[in-house]
Amino acid sequence: MTTAPQPKPEPAAQYDVAGIMGAIYSDGITGFKEAFSREWVAQLGEDLTGLYQQALARPSGAVGRGTNRHYVEIHPEDIRGFVELVGNPWIHAVCEAVLGPQYQFVEIGFDVPNPGARDQPWHRDFPATAQTLVERRLNSLAFNLTTVDVEPDMGPFEIAPGTQWDDPSSYDHGMFPPTSLYGRYQARSQLKMPRMGDVSVRSALTIHRGTANQSNKPRPVLVLGVDAPGAGNHEKHDFQMTRRFYDSLPASLREHLLCRLVDQLEPVVQGHTIEGLMMGDA
Ligand SMILES: O=C(O)CCC(=O)C(=O)O
User: Fold this and answer.
1) Is residue 140, in this structure, part of any structural domain at all?
2) What is the largest CA-CA distance in the chain?
């Protein structure tokens, strides 16, 4: 007897939409363990290592984010696993739950806190807009994938849950709270120790920082930025791909790409500089 093929479950049925929305709107961060295989992540790690070397060799290829730390924006087709990454059903479900069915990928890059990196100042990645401050809506998300198993001495990512709703009127550039507020973040602090294959997602407005890397190993982490329509974060980035690569992608993915199409890839002019992080550490 043959069995009829099962219909692909809709993300809403497969994942707990209310749970995902609840986490992003309450803690401002959530995650999914073992979303990718360790082999897939090892391949991503190899790709990022090569891209980091190329970026360091190019003028303005890597943006400073404090002592011994960089951010590098890359082209989707520079990594072998881009289609699996953005096609991941949990990532899709989170985007659809929080940002709606017309969500758009607008950024791909990676952070590298190297040995000797110090505590960053607590910060947001960009200032909150009226959609959050007045309408109380979160219209963008940042997914993070570590390419290494994070140990406590490797400068884990630290976050203060719930602070995506904090009033930024005393913040420098709308992103850097005064040190008088640091006790609030310290009291809520969670240090994240993901393993290869785990994915987290957060509002970039939830106050966070990279901590001091006291090990002898870098801690590269991929960043995937996603917007609801109209959020406008694409203006800070150069999400660029060749027409050939774009045409090779499934239509169901193309509709979620807010990108610039080119004949030949151009070096990304790093737009997402965070001045307060380039200037120094905490
Ligand atoms: O160290 C990390 O994982 C995040 C660093 C960070 O928040 C930044 O450079 O903006």
Assistant:
1) yes
2) 70
What's the number of domains the chain is made of? 1
CATH number of 66's domain: 2.60.120.620
CA torsion 71-72-77-82 (nearest 10°) is -10
In ligand 1, the atom with minimum distance to the C-alpha of 157 is 3
Nearest CA to 201 out of 62, 76, 99 is that of 99
Q: 103 C-alpha to center of ligand 1: Å?
A: 23
Per-residue confidence band for 280, with pLDDT thresholds at 50, 70 and 90 = low
- Two structure tokens written together for 27: 């803690």
How close is the Cα of 240 to the center of ligand 1, in Å? 23
The pTM (predicted TM-score) of the whole model is: 0.94
| pLDDT, tens only, 167-219 | 999 999 999 999 999 999 999 999 999 999 999 999 999 999 999 999 999 99
* 67 band by pLDDT with thresholds 50, 70 and 90: very high
Nearest CA to ligand 1 atom 4: 210
pLDDT tens-digit profile of 119-142?
999 999 999 999 999 999 999 999
Give yes or no for residue 156 CB within 6 A of ligand 1.
Answer: no
Q: List the strands of the sheet with 157-159, edge to edge.
A: 190-192, 157-159, 208-210
Domain membership of residue 14 (yes or no) is no
Give domain status of residue 131, yes or no. Answer: yes
Residue 74 lies in a domain: yes
Tell me, what DSSP letter sits at residue 34? Answer: T
Nearest to 24 by CA among 164, 176, 221: 164
For residue 234, the model assigns a pLDDT of 86
- Residue-number span of the structural domain to which 43 is assigned: 21-278
Task: Work out which ligand 1 atom sits closest to the CA atom of 210.
Answer: 1
Which of 123, 206, 97, 208 has the alpha carbon at shortest distance from 162? 206
Ligand 1 atom nearest to CA at 209:
7
